[in-house]
Amino acid sequence: MSGCGRFDFELQRDLDGGASDGVVLQPDAGYPTMLLCKKTGAPDWIPLTGPALGYPYGTLTWVPSGPTFRFRVDAWGLAPGDYTIVQYIDPYPGMPATDIASATVGADGVLTVPETSYELDRDLTTTNGKVWIVPSALVDTATDMFVAWDVTAIFFELDFVVYDDTDVP
Q1: N or C, which end of the chain has less CB nearby within 10 Å?
Q2: 159 found inside a domain
Q3: Which domain holds residue 48?
């Protein structure tokens, strides 16, 4: 267990005596995958980065249904520092901007959040299914709120995450 509802699959496999459901979250494993990229901001929110436009960009891969939101995040070209993966609900300042994972980026600019899950207790749809990579200094993880805004530092969704939380009515 790693705080804020985050769950480590490797730890669970160890606790289960090595049992695994066989799910391997890789972008090419048949699970939904979405690009995360920098955008211009309001009013147009035009993507500025991505594989076709050059670094930086990221990918989010997830299992579309289950009792916990299972996902993986990979990103390239980030500035070194601490980052928080948030599940964001409009409008700004985001209530909540739920801290679902975190990672530290070194000099190589690479961020990896391997197979992880989070108990969201809600479905994600085309109205609330946003997942962002945010410098940790911009969010208060205790209150799940943005404390500052820097559109140039956030990796935004390129589409919505659709996820069915199977243990929520």
Answers
A1: C
A2: yes
A3: 6-17+32-165
**Secondary structure of residue 11 in the 3-state scheme:** helix
Task: Please give the single-letter amino acid code of residue 93.
Answer: P
125 domain-assigned: yes
> pLDDT of 53-87, one tens digit each?
777 899 999 999 999 999 999 999 999 999 999 99
Domain contains 93: yes
Model pTM? 0.81
How far separated are the first and last CA of the chain, in Å rounded? 25
Residue 27 falls within a domain, yes or no?
no
Counting DSSP H helices and E strands in the chain, the numbers are 1, 13
Residues contacting residue 133 through CB under 8 Å, at least 6 positions apart: 36, 58, 73, 75, 78, 83, 84, 85, 111, 154, 155
